[in-house]
Amino acid sequence: MVRLCRRYWSVVLPVLGAAVLAVSWGHELDPGPAVLVGAMLIGAVLAAVHHAETVAHRVGEPFGSLILAVAVTIIEVGLIVTLMVSSPQKSASLARDTVFAAVMITCNGIFGLSLLVGALRRRVAVFNAEGTGAALATVATLATLSLVLPTFTTSEPGPVFSASQLAFAAGASLVLYGVFVMVQTVRHPDDFLPVEGITAADDGHEEPPTRRQALWSLGLLLIALVGVVGLAKVDTPNIEAGIAAAGLPQSAVGVVIALLVLLPETIAAVRAARRDRVQISLNLALGSAMASIGLTIPAIALASIWIAGPLMLGLGATQMVLLALTVVVGALTVVPGRATLLQGCVHLVLFSAFVFLALSP
């Protein structure tokens, strides 16, 4: 049975997640069952991303990237909306905290870890500065439009957008994300491939799955997504109670969600860096940050029509300092097209500072 689960984990986990959801739905969970539900939630996230990657590989670009990004965004939005519906007043800043955490995790945590692994393997991590710089510039613009400007607008009191401002930010996010996907996959794909002489036709990927495999993955993806959103709903009271019992601020909920959603991307990025594919690792990091803002903000803006309570998107002073430092350091790292251990460690220290200040503001 153990060997079977190891071989078919991507099939077993969605089915088990759906079964656990059916049994636990509508019940208040004790600590033991809550831990089991949390473990199944993590498993469902991993399985969902795995099947999204399989479908994306079969479909090809540019639609493959969109499928993967939309699947991950559904997970993130599902978790955010579930918590916001359960406690609207407590979760007014949850979308902001989650998206900002995703930016810090990807642009410092995954980014720095990829550079560190690449530099340890080859002394110098080499990547394509043109594509990586374009991705970083897009992430910086999206983050500023969606997370920084609400703090300074005056149409509404507090760090919130008015309805028209929120609509503009959502539309601008979709436009920038769509244009970037087109540039990355259609217009200038070579800017986002490793620089060691690899072309778009030979990027180290395996053969695409068969049509039957893709259809199976599509069905299991839908099951996994239902499991993710449902299990998050079931475990919401326990997550909030655990964070409160630990004496952590409410913003820690957003950090937990972002860490959970980005776990598969982190694993994939480290694996790529170990195979001397640092560029692929950086694509995963910045692409995840871009999808987190470019697709999550519009989805949350749409969901806010039906969710009672305010939607706080503006960052505080400490968060804006970390974001500005991340953008500046990221630009200095990207421009040369090569990085050493130092650059990787700098980004990881910035990530550590984010985590520390999120838990101890």
Automatic annotation (TrEMBL):
Its main location: membrane. GO terms for cellular component: plasma membrane. The chain crosses the membrane at residues 7-26, 32-51, 63-86, 98-120, 132-152, 164-183, 214-232, 252-270, 282-307, 313-334, 341-359. This is Ionic transporter y4hA. GO terms for molecular function: potassium:proton antiporter activity; sodium:proton antiporter activity. It is found in: Membrane. The keyword Cytoplasm does not apply. InterPro entries: Alkaline_pH_Ca-Antiporter, NaCa_Exmemb. It is a multi-pass membrane protein. Residues 35-185, 216-358 form the Sodium/calcium exchanger membrane region domain. Keywords: Membrane, Transmembrane, Transmembrane helix. The lineage of its organism: Bacteria, Bacillati, Actinomycetota, Actinomycetes, Mycobacteriales.
